[in-house]
Specification:
This protein has about 190 residues and is mainly α. About 65% of the residues lie in helices and about 0% in strands. It has ten helices and two strands; from the N terminus they run ααααββαααααα. It has a two-stranded antiparallel sheet with strand order 1-2. It is globular, with a radius of gyration of 18 Å. The relative contact order is 0.17.
Length: about 190
């Protein structure tokens, strides 16, 4: 059997790109974590077709179920982070514009959720998915510099946490629930 040697993207970037030596290990880890979490989210919840219509369906399904206190807290923490990141006392910061919303991306809904004028779980979940989607599209399709990646660590970490909370709240077949863990350990 032929095996391929492991590839170290960080080492390659460091050796072969301008500014590559400035790439923070935290940025590499954040990108890797987000990529993995997006892969699971899109494959498990979106049937490999992430789009606004799928996000609306997922948001409606989540709003019909019971979220644990932990899942609710995780989603609220993500909303709080992005509200702080994208809003100023005067309105929305230029960072928000750099999410590069497309016409069908429901920017107004995201603004209303981050502003605190929409409180429904389905609206919050949809806004979180849209923000993560914009980050995904900007990461995978946009031209990035090393500095841009370094500046996205907290943003990508929050998006990964958010995707994990959405996956857990969905009770998808791939995600082990607390009930499963209790049963497996012999607990009540």
């Amino acid at each position: 059997m032929i095996t391929a040697p492991a590839f170290d993207a960080t080492a390659w970037i460091t050796q072969h790109t301008l500014g590559g030596t400035d790439l923070l290990p935290e940025a590499t880890e954040a990108v890797a974590n987000f990529t993995m979490m997006w892969n699971l989210f899109e494959g498990v919840l979106c049937g490999n077709h992430a789009n606004i219509r799928e996000f609306e369906r997922i948001a409606q399904e989540l709003s019909g179920g019971q979220l644990s206190a932990e899942e609710t807290a995780s989603l609220d923490e993500c909303l709080a982070f992005w509200s702080f990141r994208y809003r100023t006392p005067e309105g929305f910061a230029s960072r928000f514009d750099r999410l590069n919303f497309r016409p069908n991306d429901k920017r107004n809904l995201v603004e209303e959720v981050l502003s605190g004028t929409r409180h429904e779980l389905s609206d919050k979940a949809l806004a979180l998915m849209i923000i993560a989607y914009r980050l995904r599209n900007n990461l995978f399709h946009g031209l990035k510099t090393i500095k841009t990646l370094n500046d996205q660590v907290h943003n990508l970490n929050t998006a990964s946490r958010c995707l994990g909370a959405l996956l857990a709240a969905s009770h998808a077949h791939l995600v082990r629930s607390k009930v499963f863990e209790l049963h497996r350990s012999g607990g009540a």
